[in-house]
Write a structure and sequence with these properties.
Layout (H helix, E strand, L loop, with lengths): L1 H22 L4 E10 L2 E12 L4 E5 L4 H4 L1 H11 L8 E7 L11 H11 L11 E3 L2 E2 L5 E2 L4 H10 L4 E5 L3 H4 L6 E5 L2 H8 L30 H13 L3 E4 L6 H5 L11 H13 L15 E2 L7 H5 E2 L5 E2 L1 H4 L4 E5 L6 H5 L2 H6 L1 E5 L4 E5 L3 E6 L18 H8 L4 H4 L4 E4 L5 H4 L8 H19 L12 H7 L4 H14 L3 H17 L7 H9 L9
Parallel strand pairs: 3-4, 5-8, 8-9, 10-17, 10-18, 11-14, 14-17
Antiparallel strand pairs: 1-2, 2-4, 6-7, 12-13, 15-16
């Protein structure tokens, strides 16, 4: 019995070798593709080999479960498209083999490689063409996540033709410098490669005119000091904390902040879009972010959800999704302490480094942190109604959940008082977001001219050396700052943050010089009895 089986195997192997020789099968083919490492793409080569032996299909090169399952999707797609699946030993190597491969983006290059190695299709320009896409069992292509960073990597790798699922084509065109072909299904792709019916390339996607669907500051009654603080924060990119009783309008005001933020530059839009693309948050209708992100995670979020992480490869968290935008933390003391502490490094450096067993990733996380909180556990401490029964010790315990290093990284503290009846019933509309945004844009224009292309994006991102140059004070200003430093017990970090805020206030006034009144207002925003450290 064993001898018979051995003879059958030998006959099958000889038959395959003769069949390959007669048909002139290449038996080996390399197809270029792309992969993801964090939020960065990198080139991948799918090496497909057909050899004699028992029929088998192996994928090597550190594939995860999704990549390993590509075998069944590719097999079914080939058969359901009326093509011949090679009856041979198939080995696919995804190079570089020392990097973990994850996701379904390798379905299409594996299929093309098998068909090319089997002689069922041939195409020119193999070194300058790359294929990315997930296959359905019928042979149609589904969109993939992370298309933009992979397209950028393709352009940097010298690829000139990129074949992607039709629903991902608009996002791929954002990388520029390549011809992007939107592929609907496998027969359409094969017809193009054979020169029978060419696929029309995708045109570069450009954002249209979309009205900002954001609540307006014109609807806000009273709270002029808070609106002033939000304007300063938007103009300089500063972190802001609001404290006040329930119903005073903290969350309502914070959610109107995006309406006065400056528009994103194309560089900022692409940076943020890459992160959203990796997380699968882009769509074929809106493949690029055109507005600054506004993230508002619930206070039950974990440290991993905030900073990022996961297995087998770390993924971005909320602070990276807020990159170039706003991270709004409502009910700040209710967040777990470990969640708040992971914010310290990103607030200083604008990035977060995650070290795991499988890999070390660095994600961008340059954001404005806007916080809202009650003055005590019940929320009514200091309210004129006198309904609060919290002791001073209970209030200090509640506020003590916030560590000194975290509080020191906030630029502006503002108290949000409860509205009086007359303010609440006042009929006159307040200043609109459009009018406030004009002043914010003018201040940002001054900063862009001051720092140039290679400098910081806004005043909040100045380092100490830039603060010394751009925030010089006269003798009167030095006296005021020294008095505040000694009286309030400020740290070196809070010293620099006061100067950055003063610089922004001066920019809003169109002043090249920081006057004493600008400095005094900046100091005032650190004088809250609740947040003083």
């Amino acid at each position: 019995m064993q001898n018979r089986t051995h003879c059958r195997i030998m006959k099958f192997t000889i038959y395959m070798q003769i069949f390959a020789g007669k048909k002139g099968m290449p038996l080996f083919c390399k197809v270029r593709s792309l992969g993801l490492h964090g939020v960065t793409g990198y080139p991948v080569t799918a090496e497909c080999d057909l050899s004699g032996g028992l029929p088998n299909f192996n994928v090597v090169g550190l594939p995860d479960a999704a990549v390993s399952e590509a075998r069944e999707r590719v097999r079914a797609a080939i058969k359901n498209c009326g093509l011949d699946f090679p009856v041979s030993r198939i080995t696919v190597n995804l190079a570089p083999a020392n990097m973990k491969k994850a996701g379904t983006v390798y379905d299409l290059p594996i299929l093309v490689g098998i068909l090319a190695a089997g002689g069922q299709v041939s195409f020119k320009n193999t070194e300058q063409a790359a294929f990315v896409g997930e296959l359905s069992l019928s042979g149609s292509l589904r969109p993939v996540t992370g298309m933009l960073p992979m397209a950028v990597a393709a352009r940097l790798a010298g690829i000139t033709e990129l074949f992607v699922p039709a629903d991902s084509a608009a996002e791929a065109t954002l990388a520029g410098g390549m011809t992007v072909y939107p592929v609907e299904n496998v027969p359409q792709l094969l017809a193009h490669l054979r020169g029978e019916r060419l696929i029309r390339s995708a045109g570069a996607w450009e954002p249209g005119e979309h009205p900002l669907d954001c609540p307006d500051f014109a609807e806000v009654k009273g709270q002029e000091q808070v609106k002033r603080a939000l304007e300063i924060a938007a103009a300089g990119g500063h972190n802001l904390a609001m404290i006040g009783p329930p119903g005073s309008g903290k969350s309502m005001l914070a959610r109107r902040l995006p309406s006065i933020l400056p528009d994103m530059s194309r560089r900022e839009a692409l940076e943020s879009t890459e992160i959203y693309s990796v997380m699968g948050l882009t769509t074929k209708e809106e493949p690029m972010l055109t507005r600054r992100p506004f993230r508002s995670p619930h206070h039950t979020i974990s440290a991993m959800g905030m900073a990022g992480g996961g297995a087998p490869l770390p993924r971005p968290g909320e602070i990276s999704l807020a990159h170039n935008g706003v991270l709004f933390l409502d009910e700040l003391p209710e967040f777990h302490k470990d969640v708040l502490e992971v914010l310290r490094q990103p607030l200083e450096e604008g990035k977060v480094q995650l070290t795991r067993t499988a890999a070390t990733e660095v994600f961008p996380s340059r954001f404005m942190m806007v916080c809202a909180m009650n003055p005590c556990k019940c929320g009514w401490y200091g309210h004129p109604s006198g309904r609060c029964r919290c002791t001073r010790q209970a209030v200090e315990k509640y506020l003590g959940k916030l560590s000194g290093p975290l509080v020191d990284r906030i630029d502006l503290y503002v108290e949000v008082p409860a509205l009086e009846f007359e303010e609440l019933r006042a009929p006159a509309p307040a200043e609109s977001s459009a009018d406030i945004k004009k002043r914010v844009d003018a201040a940002r224009a001054m900063q862009a001219e001051r720092f140039g292309e290679n400098g910081p994006d806004c005043n909040a991102h100045m380092n100490h050396a830039e603060v010394e140059v751009c925030c010089a004070l006269d003798k009167a200003g030095e006296t005021v700052l020294q008095g505040a430093f000694e009286r309030m017990g400020l740290t070196a970090r809070s010293h620099d943050r006061i100067l950055r805020v003063a610089r922004t206030i001066a920019d809003l006034e169109g002043s090249e010089k920081i006057e004493v009144e600008h400095l005094a207002e900046a100091i005032q925003y650190r004088a809250s009895e609740y947040f003083r450290r």
